[in-house]
Amino acid sequence: ALYIISSLRNSKNLEKQRETKLSASSAENTSHCRSTSTAADDAFQSLFYGHESRAGSNGIGFPLSTLDDPTVVGIDKASLTAVHPEYVFLPKEMYKFAVEHLPIVCVDVIFQRNDGKLLLFFRKDKPAANIWWWPGGRMFRGETFAATAERKIRDETGNPSLSVQAVGVVDVWNTFFPDSSWDLSRQPGREGTQTVNISVFCTLSDPSEAVEVVSGSASSWAVQAHRWVSPSEVTDCEDAFDKYVTLNVRQCRSRGYL
After folding, report:
1. Helix (H, G, I), strand (E, B), or coil: what is residue 176?
2. Residues 6+ apart with CB under 8 A from 27
3. Which of 10, 1, 255, 246 is nearest to 118 (CA)?
4. pLDDT tens-digit profile of 114-145?
5. Which residues touch 231 (CB under 8 Å, ≥6 apart)?
6. Strand pairing partners for 199?
7. What is the pLDDT of residue 116?
8. What is the rounded CA–CA span in Å between residue 170 and residue 109?
9. What are the backbone angles phi and psi of residue 196, rounded to the nearest 5°?
10. What is the Cα–Cα distance from 51 to 101, expressed in whole angstroms?
11. Among 29, 38, 177, 237, which is least packed by CB within 10 angstroms?
């Protein structure tokens, strides 16, 4: 009987110790929650981190401070978003290795000009060859989703001073293609490309600006033709365009962009 009573007392003491630790942990966590923003650092889901650790001794709390934290200095956004030349022009063998071994992060752009029409390109290279597709491409290290989207529209239309403005993220897609431009030199069964595609909606900040694709500008971007289509042309007939085109237009509508 004494053994049982002693065991019960020990059990109660252990339970009290656990409750005390949980209470302290909860208080510390609550303290960190009060000082931590729940918003991203821009409208495109970017989070810019500094080096100051704010995690508690138990690992609970926001580990690295972000832009909107007034108690932290030294977050160098300019350095974090710098796009150096070596990030842009990757050696052929390096990019080939990346395509073979890694998903490639791309930004595709639902670009609407002032008459309401959307830009599509007819792709000539693998993957997604011989299909109407959104303008877009590989994201460079240092770029935000918005920066990539605006760069791609200026590059692929041949209008370097175009007043293109990213409005918001439409969706994120994980795409799996059975082919790539590198398949001839790959082992059988290792063909294909995987890309993580962030689709971004863009418009023109100048409501009076007209835009057309400069002749020949798109030929450098794995495409051979372009067209401007209304959103209804895409969605009125389910078989008119690839599902990636149709799904993004529908998502733009659901988010209030169109």
Report:
1. strand
2. none
3. 246
4. 999 999 999 888 888 899 999 999 999 999 99
5. 116, 118, 249, 252, 253, 258
6. 108, 171
7. 96
8. 9
9. -100, 115
10. 31
11. 38
pLDDT at 21 over 60: no
CB atoms inside a 10 Å sphere around CB 1: 5
In the structure encoding, which two tokens stand for residue 28, read together?
Answer: 């510390």
Q: Indicate if the pLDDT at residue 31 is higher than 60.
A: no
Instruction: Give the closest residue to 135 by CA, choosing from 162, 101, 115, 97.
Output: 162
Handedness of CA 205, 208, 214, 219 (dihedral sign): positive
Q: By the 8 A CB rule, do 121 and 138 touch?
A: no
Q: Is the pTM of this model over 0.70?
A: yes
Closest CA relative to residue 245, chosen from 170, 167, 133, 138:
133
How far is it, in rounded angstroms, from Cα 158 to Cα 213?
6
Under a CB-based contact definition with an 8 Å cutoff, are residues 76 and 95 in contact?
Answer: no
**In the chain, alpha helices (H):** 2-34, 77-80, 85-88, 92-101, 145-157, 231-235, 243-254
Give me the DSSP letters along 209-248. ----PPTTGGGGGTEEEEEEE-HHHHHSSTTSS-HHHHHH
Degrees to nearest 5, angle at CA 243 with 217 and 159: 20
DSSP state letter for 112: B
Contact between 133 and 249 (Cβ < 8 Å): no
Strand 223-229 and strand 118-123: the pairing is antiparallel
User: What are φ and ψ of residue 250, in 5° steps?
Assistant: -65, -40
Amino acid at 189: G
pLDDT of residue 98: 93
C-alpha 76/C-alpha 114 separation (Å) is 36
